[in-house]
Amino acid sequence: xxxxxPSFARLVAELSKFPGIGQKTATRLAFFLLRQPAxxxxxxxxxxxxxxxQIRFCSICYHITEQxxxxxxxxxxxxxxxxxxxxxxxxxxxxxxxxSFRGRYHVLHGALSPLxxxxxDDIYIAPLMQRLxxxxxxxxxxATNFTVEGDATALYLARLIHPLGIRVTRLAYGIxxxxxxxxxxxxxxxxxxxxxxxx
Length: 199
What we know:
Number of helices: 8
Low-confidence stretches: none
Number of domains: 2
Mean pLDDT: 91
Strand order of the largest sheet: 4-3-5-6-7
Radius of gyration: 20 Å
Structural class: alpha/beta
Helix content: 40-55%
CATH class of the largest domain: Alpha Beta
Strand content: 5-15%
Number of strands: 7
Order of helices and strands: HHHEEHEHEHEHEHE
């Protein structure tokens, strides 16, 4: 039936590309947008276009930013001897919300997954090792997700970093196995950061 309304069907198809959005939810969202005033739809489309035009990766930490380097990398109040490595920008935001870490960050943009063809060259490990080679960092907190891929990435990084004489720690208790940092509450992330351990 919706195939006879091409513009509506196209919107449903585009919305269903979002993670966690199936055909039914996409259709419901399309009807919601249809009921909104044109100015609301234009504001949404403008926000999406601005996001794509303005956002880039920081050339130092690879977090998303509109300025390069990002505010986290240029802040004078952060401890330059501590570096937290995360898989995705969402995990960085989760740690920041916990107010438990005052160092710098490095975003890998993924985790090692040989089954999916993701190797060390497919994520930002090489720039991380370049940063560590500069000698300013004394501790690396590996805050990858507690999944098979996250643990494999953490172990791989620990093996690369230990020969540099840099302390490697991992998030501690409080975060369940198989969970992703972006969905964990601030208090639990705070406790995990404070209780980090040698890795």
